[in-house]
Amino acid sequence: MQVYADNAATAKIRPSALKAYIDTATQYFGNPSSLHEVGQAAKEVLENCRTKIAAAIGATAREIIFTSGGSEADNQAIFSAARLGAKKGKKKIISTAIEHHAVLHALEKLKTEGYEIVLLPVGTDGIVNVKDFETAIDENTCLVSVMLANNEIGTIQPIKEIGEICKAKKVPFHTDAVQAVGHIPVDVNDLGVDYLALSAHKFGGPRGVGALYVRAGAPLFPLVEGGAQERGKRAGTENLPAIAAMATALEESLAHLDANVKKVTKLREKLIEGLSKIPHSALNGDRKKRLAGNVSFCFEGIEGEGLLLYLSDAGISASSGSACTSGSLDPSHVLLAIGRVHDVAHGSLRLTLSEENTEEEIDYLIKAVTEVVEKIRGFSPVWRDLQSGKRQYIL
Ligand SMILES: *Cc1c(COP(=O)(O)O)cnc(C)c1O
């Protein structure tokens, strides 16, 4: 059996999105910046897509900039707010310990340029404490950046509450909503954000395209210089087929949102229940305040890398943390942030489901993971020490 359970890394492209891609590439091949009819027809499609994407998150079309994906959108929001901050002599940025590397590495770069970066902790439930923001924000703060839903453990953050604090203190607020858009309802006004990043390939659109929402009046500086596309904020001929496919994928995701969340939550609950029966295992992140499709576990006495390879042999596509952490031997910064010690964090598994997964696949996942964990423990020196009492169990 082949089971794709790595939808947080990238979701399969929706047939409707693929069709929109091909149709747009074929019929609207003109450059939207060209003045002739063929170009203007492409321009019209581009603006229709902008209106659709904006409507999907409660924004206006003028507040949407198309980008090459979530990473670029995060970077542009962060560097824009930082640059304006520096002009005003404000160089403090507040974020969290569990952000995606697109945010964390941008902040690390700013740190080398003299910015003060504060990464607030999360609880063992993987959720930030709203009160920490009250305390941390001061008159030097030029940006607060908090992800809406975490890519590794699926936890959903209290963005609306943090947004209220930022608004009261007049501090720009960015959210990386890449895992959330298309999966939970997202409204920029309800959340009170000034910037929001989204990416098409996390909700059934193509890879390499995304968008940044920028509240009217919030500063935005280009990362890419060149032509006047995207009102001078992002140079380069627009990737129109990909943008059309993104708009189609988002519309379709939202049209079936309630039904899909219900279906996927049921699969998730079954999977969590099944994997919880494995001795010395633990679910990562809050049991309820998490994305419908996210199941993240730690198993004591095993290596996540070995687990992934055996599961791959069994036809299962899974991940140990984020796609960026797997392949390196450093344990995930997110698992360390929720208090998992190094050894335990190494034995992690992330299964991310979609509405295309079936009950039969969940049964297969439970059976395969249970067997593989047992097999790896059979030849793990750490597991032997745990069993003999030389080491103490943590989970
Ligand atoms: C995938 C992801 C990104 C990066 O998006 P790309 O489109 O792949 O650049 C950023 N943040 C989060 C939370 C993600 O899951």
Write up this protein.
The protein is of the alpha/beta class and about 400 residues long. About 45% of the residues lie in helices and about 15% in strands. It has helices spanning about 15-25, 35-55, 70-85, 100-110, 130-135, 160-170, 190, 240-255, 255-275, 305-315, 335, 340-345, 360-380, 380-390; strands at about 5, 65, 90-95, 115-120, 140-145, 175, 195-200, 210-215, 280-285, 295-300, 315, 350. A seven-stranded mixed β-sheet has the order 2-8-7-6-5-3-4, with helices on both faces. A three-stranded antiparallel β-sheet has the order 9-10-12. The chain has a two-stranded parallel ribbon with strand order 1-11. Helix 4 links the parallel strand 3 (about 90-95) and strand 4 (about 115-120). Helix 2 packs parallel to helix 8 (about 240-255). The longest helix has 20 residues, at about 35-55. The mean pLDDT is about 95. Bound molecules: pyridoxal-5'-phosphate. Pyridoxal-5'-phosphate binds next to helix 3.
Summarize the helices and strands and which ones pair or pack.
Elements lengths: L2 E2 L10 H13 L9 H20 L7 E4 L2 H18 L4 E5 L4 H12 L3 E5 L9 H7 L4 E5 L13 H10 L4 E4 L11 H4 L3 E5 L10 E5 L25 H16 L1 H20 L4 E3 L10 E6 L4 H10 L2 E2 L15 H5 L4 H5 L1 E5 L6 H20 L2 H8 L7
Parallel strand pairs: 1-11, 3-4, 3-5, 5-6, 6-7
Antiparallel strand pairs: 2-8, 7-8, 9-10, 10-12
The structure holds pyridoxal-5'-phosphate.
